[in-house]
């Protein structure tokens, strides 16, 4: 199960990204847009794999969501995706994986909100 | 220092690509990207030597990181390009597998800018070293080809032993001059001067060419060093520059082979109306050998009484005779059948010489 204490958004990750890329808010905005554009399709692919009980098909989209979410500081979603990737690699999906999938889906809208809020604040300063 | 270079980023996640591209450009690199391994291999083929480092994700559609890495390592054109595996810390198993497949190192995800800079720096340094080595290797190969070509060209003008000497490590020392016991065989034709006066130039050149071809073949077969061709006169020596324990015997065997082959040539010439005979003089003794001549034109030559003695014996030889100096005869008496020809008074030598004619090998 995901770490209940993990924040929806780890702002430190985003701050580090800003610092590492020369405080280029335009770049982080572009990164966020790309993340927002790509992730829904990956989540759909994960859900389809879980519904079809296709462990192998779950691995790659879950892996992508895990790593891109971690890069954006969306740690809770990243951890849920990591659990699902591991489940996919184990070769057999169980009822717990459906729970994780539903949790990942539910985690997406608050993550989007939190990221948009962060970038608005960062743009203002 | 990172400076110039081209990185290829291979990752199916657009977010990860964006981050890597941004960070790498921040390090001063030119970046190209591919979203799977198949596209990456296409880019590598198109860019040829242009890519200095590859950052490779493991899990990708089309062609994954393992397959891409294996394909790169199987291709001479891409084998040497450093590959950094971009991977989460919980995927150490796949990192190990990639390093076994030939990856240089790995970059943990999420990407840390300082670790990225350090890994890129190390990879580019390794790539530069490889490129410098490759360049030096290619220069050396080109130089070797040139030397080989020069040797081949030289060996058309010089005897092969002397051509090899020119490019060998101790060649300079030998060329500078040294003293050694050698066997000299001097051969020439009886009746050649009269023939040369009568024959037309084409006939003369054809006949000489047949004769030189026959002689050259026998010289090479017996390992002789050809000092020079002078019209019908041919001087060959043995035991230098390559040492030969059996140098006297070699000279005699060569002379016998030449005499046999000459009989075939002489029969054909006789039908054209030319009567030519073949004579050889062989002597053993010490000579000074090395580069003889002047700046602009040198020969590898032998100087000493032994060459004069061989030349004079050759002049005295009747058609079909192989005349040995007394010393050569003494050294070979177990091996050859010979007949004394009496004391010869040779031009330039104060004492008469007791020469013998080689009949055959025993």
In summary, what is this structure?
Chain A is mostly helical and 125 residues long. Chain A is built from 5 helices and no strands.
Give structural attributes.
heterodimer, A: 125 residues, mainly alpha, 0% strand, B: 362 residues, eight-stranded mixed β-sheet, five-stranded parallel β-sheet, 12 helices, 27% strand
Characterize the structure shown.
Chain A has 125 residues and is mainly α. Chain A is 81% helix and 0% strand. The model of chain A has no long low-confidence stretch (mean pLDDT 89). Chain A is built from five helices and no strands. Chain A has helices at residues 11-20, 25-51, 55-72, 75-90, 95-124. In chain A, helix 2 (25-51) runs antiparallel to helix 3 (55-72), helix 2 runs antiparallel to helix 5 and helix 3 runs antiparallel to helix 4. With 362 residues, chain B is of the alpha/beta class. In chain B, helix 2 (37-47) runs parallel beside helix 3, helix 5 (113-157) packs antiparallel against helix 6 (160-166) and helix 9 packs antiparallel against helix 10. The model of chain B has no long low-confidence stretch (mean pLDDT 88). The A-B interface holds A 13, 17, 20-22, 24, 27, 30-31, 34-35, 37-38, 59-60, 63-64, 66-68, 70-72, 82 and B 12-16, 18-19, 22-23, 26, 59-61, 88, 90, 109-113.
Set out the fold topology:
The complex is a heterodimer of chains A (125) and B (362).
Chain A: H1 11-20, H2 25-51, H3 55-72, H4 75-90, H5 95-124
Chain B: E1 6-10, H1 14-26, E2 30-34, H2 37-47, E3 53-57, H3 65-74, E4 83-88, H4 92-100, E5 105-109, H5 113-157, H6 160-166, H7 171-176, E6 178-190, H8 192-198, H9 201-222, E7 225-230, E8 233-238, H10 247-271, E9 277-294, E10 297-303, H11 305-316, E11 322-324, H12 326-332, E12 336-344, E13 353-361
Parallel strand pairs in B: 1-2, 1-3, 3-4, 4-5, 9-11
Antiparallel strand pairs in B: 6-8, 6-9, 7-8, 9-10, 11-13, 12-13
Helix pairs in contact in B: 2-3, 5-6, 9-10
């Amino acid at each position: 199960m995901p770490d209940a204490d993990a924040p929806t958004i780890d702002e430190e990750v985003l701050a580090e990204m800003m610092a590492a890329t020369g405080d280029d808010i335009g770049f982080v905005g572009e990164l966020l847009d790309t993340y927002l554009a790509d992730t829904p399709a990956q989540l759909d692919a994960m859900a389809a794999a879980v519904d079809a009980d296709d462990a192998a098909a779950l691995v790659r989209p879950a892996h992508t969501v895990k790593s891109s979410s971690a890069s954006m500081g969306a740690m809770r979603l990243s951890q849920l995706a990591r659990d699902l990737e591991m489940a996919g690699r184990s070769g057999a999906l169980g009822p717990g994986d459906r729970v994780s999938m539903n949790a990942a889906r539910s985690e997406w809208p608050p993550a989007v909100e939190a990221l948009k809020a962060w970038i608005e604040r960062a743009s203002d300063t | 220092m990172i400076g110039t270079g081209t990185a290829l980023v291979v990752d199916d996640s657009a977010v990860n690509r964006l981050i890597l591209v941004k960070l790498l450009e921040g390090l001063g690199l030119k970046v190209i990207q591919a979203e799977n391994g198949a596209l990456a291999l296409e880019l590598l083929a198109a860019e040829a030597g242009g890519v200095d480092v590859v950052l490779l994700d493991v899990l990708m559609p089309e062609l994954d990181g393992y397959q891409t890495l294996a394909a790169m390592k199987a291709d001479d054109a891409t084998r040497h390009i450093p590959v950094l595996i971009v991977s989460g810390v919980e995927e150490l198993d796949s990192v190990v597998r990639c390093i076994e497949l030939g990856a240089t190192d790995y970059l943990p995800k999420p990407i840390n800018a300082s670790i990225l800079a350090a890994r890129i720096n190390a990879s580019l340094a390794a790539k530069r070293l490889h490129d410098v080595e490759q360049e030096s290797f290619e220069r050396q190969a080109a130089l070797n080809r040139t030397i080989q070509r020069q040797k081949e060209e030289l060996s058309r003008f010089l005897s092969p032993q002397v051509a090899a000497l020119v490019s060998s490590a101790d060649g300079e020392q030998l060329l500078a001059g040294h003293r050694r016991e050698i066997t000299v065989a001097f051969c020439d034709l009886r009746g050649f001067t009269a023939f040369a006066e009568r024959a037309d130039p084409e006939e003369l050149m054809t006949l000489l060419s047949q004769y030189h071809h026959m002689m050259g073949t026998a010289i090479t077969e017996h390992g002789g060093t050809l000092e020079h061709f002078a019209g019908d006169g041919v001087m060959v020596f043995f035991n230098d520059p390559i040492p030969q324990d059996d140098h006297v015997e070699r000279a005699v065997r060569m002379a016998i082979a030449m005499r046999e082959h000459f009989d075939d040539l002489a029969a054909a010439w006789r039908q054209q109306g030319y009567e030519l005979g073949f004579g050889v003089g062989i002597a053993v003794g010490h000579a000074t050998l090395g580069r003889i001549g002047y700046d602009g034109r040198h020969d590898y030559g032998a100087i000493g009484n032994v060459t004069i003695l061989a030349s004079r014996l050759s002049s005295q030889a009747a058609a079909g005779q192989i005349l040995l100096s007394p010393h050569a005869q003494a050294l070979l008496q177990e091996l050859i059948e010979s007949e004394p020809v009496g004391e010869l008074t040779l031009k330039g030598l104060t004492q008469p010489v007791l020469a013998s004619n080689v009949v055959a090998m025993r």
